[in-house]
Design a protein that fits this description.
Strands 1-2-3-5-4 form a 5-stranded mixed β-sheet. It has helices spanning 8-21, 24-31, 40-49, 112-124; strands spanning 51-52, 66-77, 82-94, 136-143, 149-161. The chain is built from 4 helices and 5 strands; from the N terminus they run αααβββαββ. The chain has 168 residues and is of the alpha+beta class.
Length: 168
């Protein structure tokens, strides 16, 4: 299939979702297990239930869980060669799931949502996983919550090539 100017809308979130879902710290925080106890089933389960390439949680859900959403926008197209994208990684955590168990997460300060943000940033900030060059952290901000959830959004800038070989 020929490349388009917007293949990154599909490709980059998929790569980021896979990267986050393969990290034992992120998965451990999502499934509420010691990092050393996270197994293959846990990695698979978070891909099915908790980490998505779109932002959505049913407002009627009462499940105490954490979610990660990954999306990308094309912020500007400078010319035929370069475009700038924004990668958004959103971490949502149910209010009843924020507190970390001291017996499971010894030495970890803070809450589940902020630790997920911290470990996701450790994976992504300054990485060259997508685009050309390195991802650059732009902001981390609290956004309007979905009922019962608390949410933070991490924004990265992604410099990228415009794909000029569009042939069908």
């Amino acid at each position: 299939m020929a490349k388009t100017y917007l293949d990154q809308l599909v490709e980059y979130p998929a790569q980021i979702v896979t990267k986050i879902a393969s990290d034992d710290k992120c998965v451990g925080l999502i499934v509420n297990k010691k990092f050393s106890d996270v197994g293959e089933d846990d990695f698979d389960n978070v891909l099915e239930r908790n980490i998505f390439n779109y932002q959505y949680v049913d407002e009627t859900t009462n499940e105490s869980s954490a979610y990660v959403w990954v999306e990308i926008d094309i912020n500007s197209v400078d010319n035929q060669t370069i475009k700038n994208a924004r990668l958004y990684v959103t971490v949502a955590c149910h209010k009843n799931y924020m507190k970390l168990s001291p017996s499971l997460f010894k030495g970890i300060l803070g809450n589940r949502r902020d630790n997920l943000v911290r470990y996701i940033d450790k994976i992504l900030n300054n990485s060259d996983i997508v685009g050309i060059g390195r991802l650059k952290l732009m902001s981390v901000k609290t956004i309007t919550p979905i009922s019962g959830f608390t949410i933070k959004e991490i924004t990265y800038s992604v410099p990228d090539f415009n794909i000029v070989d569009i042939n069908e």
